[in-house]
Amino acid sequence: MNHSVGDGSSFWHFFNSLSEIFNSQGETIDNNNNNNYLLCLKNPPIFRQVFSPLYSLPFSEPDEFISGTKSPVLKERMFHFSSETMRSLKSKANQDCGTTKIFLFSR
Question: Which Pfam families does the UniProt entry name for this protein (predicted)?
Fold first, then answer.
């Protein structure tokens, strides 16, 4: 069992309670000719109720801790290459990749 689910003593109590249920004979209750069994644990678990918050935060309203971010200004760049430069780049890419399947998209 993962420790985030429960600690060792909780698991041990659960394991012993489950064993007690399976080993118990119980009292037979005659309910419309159905044989039902009443099983009671010797040590039932006791759950403490927690009413106070586990952590007290220094703020109470969502506006106090949620803030929007502004998008950065983007710069647009345009590159213009001559057809000679594009052919040179294409042949260099073909040699580097060992292929001839790199295409130029031209208008």
Answer: Transferase (PF02458)
